[in-house]
Every structure is written in structure tokens, then in C-alpha cells.
Amino acid sequence: MDISTLPVVMAFFAITVVTAVWWVLKRRHQHGLFRRHGIPGPRPDLLDGNWAQLKEDRIEVMERWIKEY
Description:
- The chain crosses the membrane at residues 6-25.
- This is Putative secreted protein.
- The chain is an all-alpha fold.
- The protein is built from four helices and no strands.
């Protein structure tokens, strides 16, 4: 790697890390809306929320959530 390309690579890496951290913090904030308002419920995953749970029988999953929460 040429020395002149090192700052460009480092800047790209820094921007990528900052963007990833910003996205994770924003996503956690979005997923915490109900919890901040005191509404109980299942904890969502970082990437797809509760979508993986809802891929099963949705009615059954919602009935289970109603009983649990």
C-alpha cells in the first residue's frame, strides 16, 4: 500500500465505523419507543425487529404476546 493512499483508507474506515455506530444507536432508539412509554412487549432484534417471530403463525404469536405481556 502506498503511503499516499493510507489517509484515504483510514478516512474511509473511520467514516464506515461512525456510520455503523450511528445506525445502531438510531435503530436502538427506534426499537425502544414502546419501552420508553412504559408499554411492555417482546424485545426486538436489532436488524429486523420482531419480524422473525411474526413469520410463524401471526395470530398464535400475538395471542402468546397478549398472555405474556
